[in-house]
Design brief:
mainly alpha; 80% helix
């Protein structure tokens, strides 16, 4: 027989059930909500950064012509693509 330090086995089983069914589910819900909030905010920030990168690219593209312009555009596009997957 298991020693429950003087507590009735029914009470101990009730507490175990409570922890498993209510407390753990509540913690899991809070965790899922926090992850979703983090991903949403990360996606928002990434989109803002990408818009700024695109704006800077367009400004440089207007100022620089020829092969240099193409090289800068390709480099910036490669860099900016890294922000597409953030928050997904």
């Amino acid at each position: 027989m298991v020693d429950y330090h003087g507590y009735p086995p029914e009470l101990v089983e009730q507490q175990k059930s409570f922890l498993t069914e209510v407390y753990t589910a509540g913690i899991q819900s809070i965790y899922i909500s926090a992850i979703k909030n983090y991903k949403d905010r990360a996606k928002q920030y990434a989109e803002e950064v990408k818009k700024k990168i695109d704006s800077d690219r367009d400004a440089m593209d207007s100022a620089i012509q020829g092969e240099s312009s193409q090289a800068i555009r390709e480099c910036i596009n490669t860099y900016a693509q890294k922000y597409d997957s953030i928050g997904k």
